[in-house]
Design a protein that fits this description.
TIM Barrel, alpha/beta, about 10% strand, EC 4.1.3.3, 8-stranded parallel β-sheet, Aldolase_TIM, about 45% helix
């Protein structure tokens, strides 16, 4: 397993301008902020990336542009969220051709596939590419659960290497470790149980609020890895009201609004999404502004001695 499934990997938002075109200038600003904070990878085209609204050529532009920006500092992953096996295979091959170093994969979109169908879907894509794959297991939002028994079959494909664990059941981290040991790497995928999952043995964090608060997110990861749990907890407790913006149907709008407050994004979303308004907007602004007033001063988290 040559790919390093570890650390903080932002599921970055896709930036649009006022004409509903890709805003690559602001996108680069955000990616550079992530790199400066010390993230360990970049995930494109996920839920936060408004994957379902992106055109094929836009996804390819995002992949190529990100690779140019990061210049090999961290791996770039593309999410595969397609309605058909044929479409998923094509998307995976395009991502590989464009230079992506890994894939995140959701089960089939729209159609609620059965266990056998889901397994065959993932296997067909895995067998079509040499890229390492992380299965995105989010039954809460996408209504298909990839069970441990299903993973038993999926791991017959050597390039299926990791899971984005988003069941929201922290004990599932232990179940995966007990069943598969080091064969299946675990990237926690729900911000509000991220530290708990890391402490239970998850290898890394596919994060959401990192899009607006990259340094705080990476600091939590690095501090817990170095055994400085108390310091990590202090940041995490401050962070939680913000992190709860990620477990909301309007997580994209919430996080993009937060990005405007930290100067690394805009509120532009692609219809049918619309920016927040009314009481909903007032609530999110209050959460963000309260957090900014009490924002912690971070220690030198980039140079910690990691516990073996």
């Amino acid at each position: 397993m040559s790919f390093k499934w570890e650390g903080v990997m932002p599921a970055v938002t896709t930036k649009f301008n006022d004409k509903d075109e890709l805003d690559l200038k602001m996108f680069e600003t955000n990616i550079n902020a992530q790199l400066e904070a010390g993230v360990h990878g970049i995930v494109l085209g996920g839920t936060l990336g408004e994957a379902s609204t992106l055109l094929e050529d836009e996804k390819r532009t995002l992949t190529r542009s990100t690779i140019e920006i990061v210049k090999g500092q961290v791996p770039v992953l593309m999410n595969i969220a397609e309605q058909s096996t044929k479409g998923a295979i094509k998307a995976a091959q395009q991502a590989e051709d464009d230079g992506a170093k890994g894939l995140m994969m959701l089960p089939p979109m729209r159609y609620k596939a059965g266990d056998r169908e889901t397994i065959e879907y993932f296997k067909a894509v895995a067998n079509s590419t040499s890229l390492p794959i992380m299965i995105y297991n989010n039954p809460v939002d996408y209504k298909i659960e990839v069970t441990l028994d299903m993973f038993e079959e999926l791991l017959e494909c050597s390039n299926i290497e990791a899971v984005k664990e988003s069941t929201r059941d922290v004990s599932n981290v232990t179940r995966i470790i007990n069943r598969f040991g080091d064969r299946l790497k675990i990237m926690t995928g729900v911000d509000t149980v991220a530290l708990e999952s890391l402490l239970m043995g998850a290898d890394g964090w596919i994060a959401g609020l990192v899009c607006a608060f990259p340094a705080e997110t990476v600091a939590i990861y690095e501090l817990q890895k170095a055994g400085k749990i108390k310091e990590a907890l202090e940041i995490y407790r401050w962070f939680l009201p913000l992190l709860e913006l990620d477990i909301n149907p309007k997580l994209v709008q919430n996080i993009k609004l937060a990005e405007t407050y930290t100067g690394i994004g805009t509120e532009n979303v692609r219809a049918p999404r619309l920016p927040l308004h009314g009481r909903e907007r007032e609530h999110v602004i209050n959460v963000i502004e309260t957090a900014l007033r009490t924002r912690p001063v971070l220690s030198d988290y980039k140079n910690l001695k990691v516990l073996v």
